[in-house]
Amino acid sequence: MILSAFMMLASSANPLVIAHRGASGERPEHTLEAYALAIDQGADFIEPDLVSTRDGVLVARHENEISETTDVAARPEFASRKTSKLIDGQTLTGWFTEDFTLAELKTLRAKERLPQLRKANTAFDGRYEVPTLAEIIALVRKRQSETGRTIGLYPETKHPSYFRSIGLPIEEKLVATLGDAGYDGADDPVFIQSFEVENLKRLRGMTKLPLVQLMAGAFGPPDLPGMTYAEMSTQQGLADIARYANAIGVEKAMVIPRDASGDLAEPTALVRDAHAAGLKVHVWTFRRENYFLPQDLRISIDPAAAGNVTAEIRAFLATGIDGYFTDNVAEGVAAAR
User: Fold this and answer.
1) What is the DSSP string of 226-281?
2) Is 62 labeled as catalytic in the residue annotation?
3) So what's the pLDDT on residue 336?
4) Residue 1 — pLDDT band, cuts 50, 70, 90?
5) Rounded percentage of the chain residues whose pLDDT exceeds 90
6) Of residues 20, 30, 159, 282, which has the active-site annotation?
7) Mean pLDDT for the chain?
8) Is 275 designated active site?
9) What are residue 70's DSSP bridge partners?
10) Residue in 30, 62, 159, 282 annotated catalytic
């Protein structure tokens, strides 16, 4: 079992509020502006998903296919870069970060990924750049100096096996960049997360920073065909995870599923079993729009209207979770206080 003093502090008594892609309920996700707003709203951690450019620079995008989150499709100079690729068993068509240098990506501008649900956010389309990991770290350091608060980083390695297969491994670059900024110890405010298993084991041999095994109930790790996250969430599976990771990051339904009516049902044993294995439990993702909420916490039939996400978060807090991801940091902070 791997545990640190920092992990002991990050407990269910003081659940961590993790800004999912920044304050992505109010600004286009994975932009410096979204991260800055999340910090202003009181987030304990900000979460950058990391992919690589062609020249090996780590940048923040939810996926390496960027047509949903940038204006690349409207840029005629890059029309010829549109292509199809097989990534983690799925064929995707679009524009991919690994086909762009950092200088080229910096000419693009971010846009709202969910315009149907977050129309107000589209007012910021075209304003913001794609940030690098180094720029995100610089923002965190600046805001820590200004506020006197500790602001954590929660990077996710996206499609690490794929990037390694094309000669752009993420792990080494991530550990080196964090190390250069002074993040290299078990007590440092960083969690590194992944849906894969072998890259977390590789990272365990490279860093003492806390690691998080991500899990989604209906799937399995992309690098271990035949294995399911359901198997990994058994008592034995959790004991195995505890040999290389400090926490699990799980989708909400693995902690509290929904019943046939779409309401919250009874909690599972996952939080109890994970804690027994020495693992912290972080849950994703809380969003205020009715579309994402349980049926009984929706305020109206409008899918884009704000429902009672505070009540949803508090129901999960009652299970003893140690932290949670949210697109709406102000509501997330209020629910925990």
Assistant:
1) T--HHHHTSHHHHHHHTTT-SEEEEEGGGTS-B-TTSSB----SHHHHHHHTT-EE
2) yes
3) 87
4) very low
5) 94
6) 20
7) 95
8) no
9) 110
10) 62
